[in-house]
Structures are given as C-alpha cells and as structure tokens.
Amino acid sequence: MVHAPTDAPTRERLTSVAAADVAPLAAGCAIFGTGGGGAVYTSQLATEQALEASGPVELVTVDDLDADDAVIIMSGIGAPTVGIEMLSSASQIEALLAGAEAAAGRRITTLMAAEIGGSNGVSPVGWAARLGLKLLDADGMGRAFPEATMIAMNVAGVACDFAVMADVVGNVVTMKTVDLAWLERHARAVTVASGGLCLGAHYPLTAETARGAVIEGTVSAAVRVGHALLSSSEPVRAVADELDASVLISGKVIDVARRTEGGFVRGSVTIAGVGSDRGRLQRIELQNENLIVLEDGEVLATVPDLVTIVDSETGHAISTEMLRFGQRVSVLAWACDPLWRTVRGLELAGPQAFGYDLPYVPFEGAQR
Amino acid sequence: MVHAPTDAPTRERLTSVAAADVAPLAAGCAIFGTGGGGAVYTSQLATEQALEASGPVELVTVDDLDADDAVIIMSGIGAPTVGIEMLSSASQIEALLAGAEAAAGRRITTLMAAEIGGSNGVSPVGWAARLGLKLLDADGMGRAFPEATMIAMNVAGVACDFAVMADVVGNVVTMKTVDLAWLERHARAVTVASGGLCLGAHYPLTAETARGAVIEGTVSAAVRVGHALLSSSEPVRAVADELDASVLISGKVIDVARRTEGGFVRGSVTIAGVGSDRGRLQRIELQNENLIVLEDGEVLATVPDLVTIVDSETGHAISTEMLRFGQRVSVLAWACDPLWRTVRGLELAGPQAFGYDLPYVPFEGAQR
C-alpha cells in the first residue's frame, strides 16, 4: 500500500537534527503523544547531551535509502511511570544494535522511531547519534498508541521478522513470534521480568519494505510544531494552525476519573468551558492516550484521529497521568494519517479495537 | 572441577536406548525425581513412539565426545500440572535445534537432559531420536530441582551462553542473560506468556566444558533402577539396593498440607509407621520436590540428598502433587552426587537455598 504523507509535500523537511532542535522536538513529540507515549523531559536531556557529544544526526527520507541500507526501529517498552525513574544505559543500545545485526544477518544503517509521540519520538535521535546511524524522518504511528500491533507496517502488511530487547542489567532477548499480538504478549512479560522497562529493536525494514509502510515526515513535523509552540505568544493557536487542528473547547478540568488497570491508565476527564465556551461540557475517554471526545452524547472526535489536551497558557501537552482538577486546558483534535483510515487501520486502531461500540467518523474539523 | 561419578565405575553402562528400555527408564526417572520433575506417563508414551519410529538412540559418555561434538540441553519448562494436558509439537524441538545452532554458530551433535528426574529425564531420549542426535549418558542434576540455577554446570562454574525457548504456537525466543538467576526469571515470564509450558534448549557444552561439569551415567542408572523396580517381587527393597538407599520408614500418609504458591507446590506430608515402624512419625517438607525428613525434631535427611516416597506395594514413586491421605508408602533416602556437597553446590541447592535455617548434614544411611 502506498499513501501520500498528510502534510509533507508542501512543508519543509529537516535534513539533520542538532542539539538546538531537541527542545522543539520534545515539545512537538509531546503534542503528537495525544496524552501518552511517555514523559519527554529525561529523553530531552539525554538526547541533547548525545547530540552535543556526537554532533547532529543525519535525517533521511525513504527515497534516500538505497539497497545497502537496513532500517531498525528502536523504542522504550514499559510503563511511563517506571521510565521517569529508571534510566537506560549506553550499553543497552549497543546490545540492541549488535542483536539486530546478528538476527538480520546484515549491517544496520538507519534508525526509525516506533512512535513519534512522547519520549519514544525523542530518544531515537540521541541513540542514532551515539550509534553513528542515520535517522529516518518517519515513524510507525504518526502519534502514540499503547500496543505493538498498532503500527503502520502492520497495517501495510509487512511482517516483523524479529525483535530484540535489552534491559539495564545486561540481559538480551531475541524473539521471533508468529505475529505482533504474540510479540506484544511476550515482550510485555520480559519487560515486567526486567523490572518494568526495556529498550527494544524490532521491525527490520529495507528501502523496498519501508515504502508506503511508514508514516513519513514526522520528525520534521514534530520539530516544526515545537518551534511554533515555543516561539509564539499565542502558543495554542500557533500549534493548532501548524497541525491544521481544531480547538474543541477551552475550559477547566472539573473531574478526573483515572485507574491503573491491566498495565494501562484508563478513565475519563471532564472539561467545563470558560469564556466563549461557558456552559459547554466535554468528556474525554482515556487508555494511556486520549481516545474519544464526547459532548451532549455526541462524538466529536475519536481514535485513530488525534486528540491532545494542552495547557491553555503555555500550549504544552498534558499527558493523561498529569491531568488534575482545576487545570486550564484546551482540547485540540486533528485528522490522523490516511493509513489509519483504511479498513485494516481501523481494525487495528479504531474505536472498536479499544473496546468502544462506536462507529469511526473521520474528524474533518470542529462542527460548532 | 573434576569429580568421580558416584556409582559409575563398577556398574554397567548402556550404549543405546531402545523402545523396550523406555518403561524402565520412566520408572527410574520417577524415582530420581524425588517427588518432582513432572509426571512421566505422557513422556513415556511419546518417547516409545519416537524410538519405534526412528530406532534406538546412541548413548555416549563425555569421553566419547570429540572436538566436532557440541552438546545442548533440552527440557520442558513450566508447571507439571499444565504439562499433563498441553502436549508439545514436533516442530518445537526442530525450532529449538535450529535456534541453538544459530546461537552457537555450529552444528549440534548431542543432547543432554537438564535433570534425570521425572519427565525431563525421559523426553530427551525421544527428542534425540527424532532429531537424529546422540544422547549424553549424563544430566545436570542427578535428580530433579525446581530452579534453573540448581544445575551441575553452574556448580562447576561453566557459564550458560544462551537459552532458546519454543512454544507450541511457533514463537521462538533466544536469551542471553547475565546469569542463571536472570535466565530463570526471564524464562519463567516467557513460559507464563506462552500459556504455562515451553520447551527449552540451553547450556551449550563441548567435550572440554562438559568434563567434570555434568553428572555422568544417570541415564543408564535410571534404566537400571527401573529394571530393578519392574522385575522384582519386592520392588521397594530392590530399588533401595540398586540405589544404596535407606528405607527411613514404612507407613501410612496421615496428613498432607499442600498449597500452590509462587508457581510452586509447597507444604508437608506426615507419615505414621506401620508394622515394625508402628509408633514412629515422620514429616517431610516439600517444594515441588521432597526436601527434608524430620522425626522427633531430628533431621534424618535433607536436600540436596535424595528423598523419594514410593508406593509400598509397587515401588513406584509418588510425586508430591499425588500424595493422598491413607496411601501406604515407604520413604527412601540416599546420598547425592559429591558435586552437590561442595561449598558451591550447597550454596545453590542446600537447605538454606530453600529457605530453611538448617545446616546440611550429609546423609550416610539410616541411623536407626
């Protein structure tokens, strides 16, 4: 399947990422995290340090890849709450690269982020710098999702040949599973045995298999969104304009119902409008990420379209575990990559994949 | 460390295992299981079928191995209760062999049992037949133990380079862990994710590393003990003579306190003497295997020495999960391999390794 990137053709692409780009990258990745994907702050610090030590990372497109190139995806796996405290070691990414090259039987030249949302969008930049690899200006989700099956290559029908996991102790596990659902199950078990957090390398890709099977331009897009956020005096408006997003409501958090269940954060948040939105109420359903926005019994936006709650003053994304009573927030919603709107995309990541008995209605902008 | 096998020099060694040897092998492995190691019946059937289909398996000694030989250990991993119902597939052992050869970077020629006790002593004979491999007349425990760390090669200081696990679904996981405690932890997690039972290949050995680091002659010994059991009109006495074991008591099970906890069966069984033992009471502490025999506050025998409860009529071993009120039983105890009596052996598998604040007193025969 070949699809056109949502916004890439008309917008500037970066050709490298330098230390000065990391702050906007982190702010942008938090926006694409739709409430999940892990806190970006420690990733931001580690990535800045890596780029200062090793210099900028070359950012390439799928078109730049040739027959000698081999791409591997690296990401953190585990509970974001553990990730705040358990840092990774330099030897983990070296073990991953060695394990991936052994399993692939060839040299790896290029890294890609599994998800551009949250810390998993930021960290691969630093890992590429430390490992001397190129970084693909793309990711596997165009946002953040909670499970391994919810990845663009799976939508496109590309099989995952193997996964390598490394923990901070020095244990390395290589998995060849019959499908991504089994990979999710086994990888989650090993992650728990390793203390709740691992780094993983999986989904080896080539120029051929990557084409049309990844979501392109997302590293550049995250830096662009972060720049808009950090440089504007009206950051919410600037971010919305950059993303072609709608502001569904501006208001105040008046209720947070949140429980940790089966390794996920689930619940809902209720927002009461202020100013011109006074009198309106919206409820957002959560599972790690923001999933569905409801108002007066009507669905305004639903997964896989993107919903991010931002601070109304600063424009910075607020992740689901940081939502608190009384926060002044704005709710942004925008259209997902077209790949997620295919039959297979919705089967893997539509509202029903999250247990909601709701049809998917594509988000095309605010109706009111 | 080089040690002399306990009983080998004076006793006959088999040079092959044929279908007709499997029934005595299974009965003998159950005796060496000391109450654990998994029920032997389905393994016996599968192994008989494999030997009928593929012919006898060549049984070799460490001295027979040359520089071209590479040994791998194969075993079932998981709860014996699951093993009764979940059968393995032919493709699992093929996947294990392929995974082990890939990880070792060489052809594997020889299989060894991780533990001679229970089904893990029986099944490798059939696997060797199906895979066309030789079988080493040796194992890693000389009995059964519940954890991966409790293995002779670990006592001898030989590192485990890797482990490969395969489940019945087709998932294959290769692990390189920093030590056996981490291997136990990760392998247990993957086993649970696979539904409670996996087959595993681990501890690659060569002629050099195997010497003095495995317990030799145990396949022959299990067949010999099984023959004694099945061919005698006084099977308890015949087994005791063959093993140089003492009969600590003959009596009746009057209490079984047993709970499943942390993936193990724990508890104790109380036996009241009958006949010439009338008036005596013994309690045996359990963790999957029989660990410690107590009478009048005195320790009569303790792990790593071997304690097996047998049916007083048939001589067949009764595993810890099959103990029932009213059974007529005899308790056999005999000395473990000298390797387990070293400082390192007792550190890994002495009474304190099982949480008992007791010194190890070598079992040298019944005192009364």
UniProtKB/TrEMBL annotation, chains A, B:
Top-level taxon of the source organism: Bacteria
Alphabetized InterPro entries for the sequence: S-Me-THD-like_C, S-Me-THD_C_sf, S-Me-THD_N, S-Me-THD_N_sf
Residue stretches making up the S-Me-THD N-terminal domain: 21-176
Residues annotated as domain S-Me-THD-like C-terminal: 181-362
Protein name, per record: DUF917 domain-containing protein
Organism listed in the record: Microbacterium hatanonis
